[in-house]
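Appendix B. Raw example, untouched.
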Amino acid sequence: MFARRIVVGVSGSAGSLQALRYAVQLARKEAATLAPVLAWTPPGGDMADRRCPNPELRRIWTQAASDRLCQAIELAIGGTPADVEFAPAIVRGEAGQALTDVADAPGDVLVIGAGRRGILSRLLGSRVSKYCLAHARCPLVAVPPSQLAGELHGLHGWVLRHRLQPEKVGLHAAEA
């Protein structure tokens, strides 16, 4: 695969952080530009913003999206990588459409988190993944969640979280 730009969807979720880590490795291997993209919509949606436009609120929302992208980059890879060209972007819009619109040039590769595993998650979730799979105009890589992220979801994850934090289930340290 010859890629010029690796576009990766970043939301701050565990799956998107795993996708960002993979995208960095791919960008290094391909000597490609790394383009992490965070898509955002106003609280209440675009309709609410159109009804009562407020430039100050838009500035605050845009800054919050920028802060979220910076925080996700810091959490996933420890900050801006020095050894790859880096072109982060914040896009206003629904995540799936924003990612497929950004990753539309020849030589682009789109990297997304595959979402959680499990029957309920597959039936109800992964809207962004499904949209990207259906509409991508470039090669797409869906990165599975890490083993730790998989262990922290579902009934097993609930038991594990509550076993690690006995005060949440009403036990005192001496009883645990």
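End of appendix B.
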